[in-house]
Design goal:
385 residues; Aspartate Aminotransferase, domain 2; seven-stranded mixed sheet; three-stranded antiparallel sheet
Amino acid sequence: MIFLDYQSTSPLDPRVVEKMQPYMTRWFGNPHSEHIFGWKSAEAIDKAQELIALTIGAEPSEILFTSGATESNNLAIQGILRNNKSKAKHLLTTSIEHKCVLNTALAMRKYGCLVDMVPVGKNGIVDVEKIESALNKDSIMVSVMFVNNEIGTIQPIKEIGELCSKKGITFHVDAAQAIGKVPINVKEMKIDLLSISGHKVYGPKGIGALYVSHHYSSKIEPIIFGGAQQNNLRAGTVPAFLCTGLGEACRIADEEMEKDREHNLLLRDTLIGKLHTHFPDLVINGDLNQRIPGNLNIQLPGVDSDALVTALQDKVAFSTGAACNAGIVEPSYVLAALGLNIDEINSSIRLGYGRFTSIEEVNRAIDLISEKAIQVRNCVTSPNV
């Protein structure tokens, strides 16, 4: 099997597993207990906060652990909007956000919140001027993802952050697909809240983090209630082994960002070049330059992408869209937002690769995908064959 679905999840880095091991076996204590087992776990959590904070230019005390980016996004959006007591509330986001942002935003309507979604251009990037023109006197929050999970495009986060800061509007960023892939400094980018996911950065599943600026620690309402853990913002026993994994994953990703980038550029250029020889009419979805190199979303005109993925599911793992939409039979709303028609969407595939993908695997995958795609295309053009 060749794994080319890194946007859905990434493999655990062995170095991360090694760091986690002691807190799953020897130092397994509850970090909130007053004995050596608890103290060791608490120390590990403090260290993880330091490592994550260094990765994004924050303070360790501004890092809050969650179960993943979905919870982080929910806490950021619900926490700010529900805490705001004004009757008129306005949330601005984009049309290509992750479902956990879009659906959370829509759910806030029951609390009297008005929600607007700014369209993106054909290149998959939002125009900052369109965001500015969509803001009004009731605008409380802007939520924009750093890197899109389907097409890998990078949004102008610093410019949006400066706009929000100037207008006194809370700025939330979903950085699940960005952490370790693009430089992030929450202070310089004027980001108030930032969501992170462990399993998108070679860390474990079931752990994430939310950066909460010191200025917002008293302005966010919890959505999980129980004990007083994490300054009363997120109840529940904090899992030291998972926190350690996320911290180590962030440390490695930050240190090896340029190395990973160069590796992914080599893989991407190989994929584009060799696939183009088989499919001269190949189309790349989203801006090719303003995107992370570990994502390639392409159209193979005349090829049914679902049939292609199914035909190769025991040889090459890739997808037609986001894993969050699994089981939902509908065209990709992200690709539709770019202006693609139904045929173009249905012929699109997403290839994700990364640190542990070899050039040999990519070359083999190109052969398999090209061979099967030609067969699928021929079946459509010659249904009686």
